[in-house]
Fold this sequence. Notes:
By secondary structure, this protein is an alpha/beta fold. It is built from 16 helices and 21 strands.
Amino acid sequence: MTTTTDEYDVIVIGGGPAGENAAAYAIAGSSRTAAIVEHELVGGECSYWACMPSKALLRPAEVLGSARAMPGVRGLVGVGRLDVPAVLRRRDAVTHNHDDSGQVSWAESVGIEVIRGAGSLGGERTVLVTRPDGPTRTLRARSAVVLATGSTAALPPVPGLAAALPWTSRDATNLREVPARVAIIGGGVVATECANWMLALGVRELTLLVRGDALLASAEPFAGELVTRSLREAGASVRFGARLQSVERENPEDTGIGRVHGGPVTLVVDGEPLVVDEVIVAAGRVPATASLGLAEAGVVATGSGHVATDEHLTVAGIAGQWLYAVGDVNGRAPLTHMGKYQARVCGDVVAARAEGRDLDGPRFTAHADHDQVPQVVFTDPEVASVGRTEGRARADGLDVETVEVPIAVAGSSLARDDFTGRAKLVIDRTTDTLVGATFAGTEVAELVHAATVAVVGAVPMDTLWHAVPSYPTVSEVWLRLLEARRG
């Protein structure tokens, strides 16, 4: 039974980074009020189960690898393995042991009220908040409701898989024990990053079951090839074209996140059994929209469950410009930094409409989440990219040329003795501007922002010639790329 009704100017369902940013930007510098409705932890998937813990698990192995590649340091670290308990303690410190009080304090400090419970739409400008221990609470929004519920791990419909209680990414990032034998279903970002930290933490046998014929299939081919080679050299088995037919587990048991969920698991792959101690599903994600009450507000989700929006992040097909969707829930660019970008645009749009201002100027339109998206895959080697790949550009009908060179410059040779990598630019011949760039190599994550600026700013290639990289840095690869194009 509904017993209370409260009004706010802005109500956000979902307290992850996208939801936090949307609420903060919508009320910044004003007397408007905002509430965030969150049924788990404020800070969302990224803070506790995805970006932050995964990078905390990956970084120690990266540091150890760098030390072993440096004469004068190599002898100090020897051939020992990582101190797994210490790595996990640091991971837990990074996630604040799943205590979101700091995030709640931040929200309150900027004027956002945090409301605990599961939020759903109850009609126009109406949000219902339910909790198992209390009555339903009704909230009404004077200006806007923002959907920012993110996504959840997808589970392929393989016979026996669900009953086997496999690990998802949440278990893998919050592991409490390291299984000896692991199978990972998938070949994308989560699968490859997970494979890296599992091997570093001491998994004895690791098998990647990839349905397609490449890792990181949406990236430039050379990137996936480098990651595949590295994983195999580290001891992983990477099986392409794998057909998973069934899964069966002895004595499955919900032992808690990050603990082995029962006895050995037998996977039948291409007619042959594969026995492991734990199976990790990293086969994509689905938008968390099933319990949002979309029909109550007249929202028609896409076939995949996403909520379509216009370039102001307003939900399509809803009169009155009161409903918005940001982050994974709209399917435009399912990355934390792009969700935050959308949220900033959305918040500015909500504020402008609340104040009766025109939506003139680029700050009120989201476009970078189409063909200007940067991404880093924190594998060994790292893969950093922005914009279109060559294949995607040609499929889009662009007349492109490409430049591809090894990352072999003075800066890289000084960084570590075993530095490896490759870089590629995709250039639109018509405009003579960069539309895509990919860097795959040792610690190349920081290279991608320069490329992002060039893509978003449509900087002419002749102008880039005058952007001189500092010597000796890995960024010198920009000069090598431009020289290769010049011929």
